[in-house]
Amino acid sequence: MDATLRDQQISAWLKEIMPSRVLFLGGRNELHDRAGQLVDASLSSIVGLDPEWIDRLPARFRPTVVTTELGNVRSLDPGATFDLGICLAELAELPVGLAKTLLSDYRRRCRFLIVMLRLPRSRREGSADPTVWNDSDLSELSVLDRCQGESCAMFLLRGGSDVRRDRAFSRIFYLSPSREIRGGLKILYNHVEILNSVGIPAVLTVREPHNNPASWFPWDPRFQVFDHSAARRTTARDVVVIPEFRFREVKKYEHVGKRLLFVQNPGLCFEIDRWRQMGFDGVLTLNCPDGRQSQMHSFIVARTDLPIFAISNHYSDDPWGTACVDREPGRILCLPRKGPEFIERLRQEFSGIATVDNVPQTRMAVEYARSDIYVHTGFPEGQPMPPIEAMLSGCLVCGFTGQGGLDVMRDGETAYVAEDGNHEQLVAAVRRALTDPKREQVRAAGTALCQSFHRAVTTAELRRCYTSWLPTLPKRRPSVLHRLAGTWHRMRAH
Question: What does pTM read for this prediction?
């Protein structure tokens, strides 16, 4: 097989598969060394970033490569699975019967395989040479694509018995509009990391990936990242998830299989009555892990007839409650970006007001741990993260709920609630938090409730969303106008 043709085809397949774990079967040889170079080089083409960005990425972002002898499957960890298996030499020299047995073992471990097999030049050769694969032999393999050579061919095979085999889609694209990983955008990153950890390929499209020191947590991705030109990379087998405040970008993805709107804040929801007309297939929103319907879910149900799936956020990997500092009695913590005018008025009533913002999670965890009370002054909200973070850190929480905060802020039980925008009630809520004889029971109840926001719950809901709920959505028949618009946007992206 021509080396240039072989390399071009492998590179094309790598762009589609986006492997994070690669298994080389048969050990290292000249062909596998070249394939390894293509795996490394594929990072720049897959990610779509300039080389200077790639050099900054952490080592674990790059594909993990494992090598084993072809017949030594027992040397692998019993639970080890791989995105891609590659065998470009020894398999073609084995008798077909033995090769089928080996392939059966490795197909159970690998989502896809790239293999080189000998094909007959004529019917006569096919009947005499035991290493030649005939059409009947190939029919037993799940062949997705092939690259034909003179005396052999390279095949892309489907493998794997995990959740990905039953998917009706290829990849999930989450659109992140900002390079700063903070607030609700952090949830997008959480989803992508979890989906990849359970074998569902998910990627991010980011305008300007950047290790910004002001980011809420370090830009240290464990998943594939695309630049903002991802519109030209998506296919009809992909799913795109669009934040609610960028809902108009749906027109760029008319060619994509499923288009979901991710809604986290009612204050950012516009033209709700046109979501279906614009081409969205469904809505993702936030869930309450204790089984109650979230405020955000109730808000959307009352305003659209699109299918809705709610997913809990999780805080299991965050540092809340781990800072080893002493709590300062009477210290009242506020975030200046949330209703600064209310914070200034609180300063006139209370002496222990402290403000902090735009710092990494590790610093914020210390600020929460030092504080006796956290006052939330933002509204409207979908499911505000600061009250949950504060409760997990052991703070008493009081203030505005922004409606969505009612998921965790239950007046007199887990928090002290004031009517949104009502300064007098806000002052009264803070006084209650300072003087209520049951304040420690309220503090403990808030912490216990928020501990249900666990990674295991989020993982189960994400898996159910993309393997059970998504395939049930009705197929969309795009209009001619929308198809032309999608083509125009893809051409413009090029």
Answer: 0.64
